[in-house]
Structure formats: C-alpha cells, structure tokens
Amino acid sequence: MTQPSAEPKIGDKMPDGTVFAGISPETNKPMYATPADASLTMTFNDAKGYAAQLDAHGHKDWRVPTKAELNVLFNNRAAIGGFDVTGSYPAGWYWSASPYYLWNAWGQRFSDGCQHNYDKGNHSAVRCVR
C-alpha cells in the first residue's frame, strides 16, 4: 500500500488559504501565492510597498515576485488560478520585483507570457508571493 504524498501539488490550496505556486528559481524553496491579485493595479513602487505591508493568511512576509518567479506563476497560471489572462493593459500585465534600469522594471503579460520592461510609473496587476 502506498502512502499519499505529503508534497503539495502546484495549485493546491494550503490550510492557511495560500496557494502552492511551485519552486522558486531564486531560492529553490517552495513558493506560495495569494489566491487572488491585489484589488487594484498599481505602480512599481506602490506594488512593492503593498506587498511589504500585506498581512494576509496569517503571514506578513509577502513580496512581489522576481522576474524568474513571475514566470513560474505564468507557467502554472491555470493550476494557481485567478490571473487576468486577457492581455489587456494594465490588469493583464503583472509586475515583477526585478528592475530593468533606473526608471524601468520587468513585467509579464499573462495572456502569452511576454516579459517586457516598462516605466515604473505605469500601472500593472500584482500577485504576491512568499
């Protein structure tokens, strides 16, 4: 008789309400996401501030995902759920925490996975990870 695996599967809702999103390519550790996007689109700096202040699901260590972590979220978007995959601007684009240059940062469109840098003053959607 085989024992059920204790390892969560991508998209599994955890007991605390977070969603197992996969393994972070940055830390090589499990990465958990909020079950929904932030309610509003926001600028790059506002997104980072929002994540730093977020107290949700019993955790206060939320952050904006890096460019590589955001791509993990994109690749697992169907299992994780709740992403705007219309490709529309700004809600269909998501911020990463990875700067591109002084005034720009990386974002990703969740309709097709396109990663592009754009002005930190623009608005995009945010999905926090921990």
Structure description:
The chain is an alpha+beta fold and 130 residues long. The chain has one domain (19-119). Helices cover 18% and strands 22% of the residues. It has a three-stranded antiparallel sheet. Strands 1-2 form a two-stranded antiparallel ribbon. It is globular, with a radius of gyration of 15 Å.
List keywords for this structure.
two-stranded antiparallel sheet; alpha+beta; 22% strand; 130 residues; globular
User: Which geometry do the CA atoms define?
Assistant: globular
- Whole-number radius of gyration? 15 Å
Order of helices and strands: EEHHHEEE
Q: Give the overall pLDDT as a whole number.
A: 95
The main sheet orders its strands as 3-4-5
Structural class: alpha+beta
Uncertain parts? none
Count of DSSP strands: 5
Our estimate of the beta-strand percent is: 15-25%
Gap from first CA to last CA: 35 Å
Helix percentage? 10-25%
In total, the number of domains comes to 1
Strand count, sense and barrel status of the largest sheet are: 3 strands, antiparallel
Number of helical stretches of at least 4 residues: 3
Structural topology:
Elements lengths: L18 E5 L6 E4 L10 H10 L13 H9 L1 H4 L12 E9 L2 E6 L5 E5 L11
Antiparallel strand pairs: 1-2, 3-4, 4-5
At a glance:
The protein is of the alpha+beta class and 130 residues long. Helices cover 18% and strands 22% of the residues. A three-stranded antiparallel beta sheet has the order 3-4-5.
